[in-house]
Write a structure and sequence with these properties.
Jelly Rolls, binds N-(carboxycarbonyl)-S-(3-nitrobenzyl)-L-cysteine, alpha+beta, about 200 residues, seven-stranded antiparallel sheet, binds fe (iii) ion, globular
């Protein structure tokens, strides 16, 4: 089924389930070349979420700021190719949500463990806010926080489970959002991890 969480945002429950094994193979291929790492923020913190990227452009942060890069600063090589299973799923999900012809060039892969959180933020480093973002959740459940266009004000709590796919677009694209601190509720396939990957048109 689907849950409408904003005027142009929808949770497609279990949409990724038929593709899980292919997606996890993709994650393995990516992390063999560009391992998960904990990046520094411009504010001097180390992120509790570990991340990597695939596709032409990858999101990175360090003491100097946030940016998209073509080269993985850890490996010194281009980010790994976008696995075909990622692209196929993202295009199907985008189409299902009313966004035809989604052509992502960037995929950020986040890995959460118990205690990991993502504080309220906006995603503003992409060039084209008209393109949607497709987000795939695997492993442990999370509570997603969905706010408004300003940091203050009400946030809704949206539970996200293994296999859920969220498509965010249009007027919802710049809403504040985050992930509550992860509880340890081990998943049969992924243990005490949550993996979330987001496909974007960044360039
Ligand atoms: C996560 N990741 O569950 C989330 C899923 C990130 C991030 O937030 O930046 O890595 S993506 C949720 C998202 C992305 C872009 C826009 C909006 C939500 N939104 O408008 O609410 O690891
Ligand atoms: Fe975000």
């Amino acid at each position: 089924g689907r849950d409408i969480i904003g005027p142009q945002s929808v949770v497609l429950r279990g949409f990724a389930l038929p593709a899980v094994e292919a997606l996890l193979q993709g994650v393995d291929a990516v992390t063999t070349q560009s391992p998960f790492r904990h990046m520094e923020t411009p504010g001097g913190y180390t992120m509790s979420v570990a991340l990597t990227n695939c596709g032409t452009l990858g999101w990175a942060t360090d003491a100097h700021g946030y940016r998209y890069t073509r080269i993985d600063p850890l490996s010194g090589q281009p980010w790994p190719d976008l696995p075909e299973a990622f692209l196929r799923l993202a295009q199907q999900a985008a189409a299902e949500a009313g966004f035809a012809n989604f052509l992502p060039d960037a995929c950020l892969v986040n890995r959460y463990e118990p205690g990991s959180r993502l504080s309220l933020h906006q995603d503003k480093n992409e060039r084209d806010y008209a393109a949607p973002i497709v987000s795939v959740s695997l492993g442990m459940p999370a509570v997603f926080l969905f706010g408004g266009n300003e940091r203050t004000g009400k946030t809704q709590r949206v539970p996200l489970f293994h296999g859920d796919v969220v498509v965010w677009g249009g007027v919802d694209r710049l809403r504040y959002h985050g992930v509550m601190p992860m509880q340890d509720r081990p998943h049969p396939r992924l243990g005490s991890h949550r993996i979330n990957f987001t496909l974007r048109k960044a360039g």
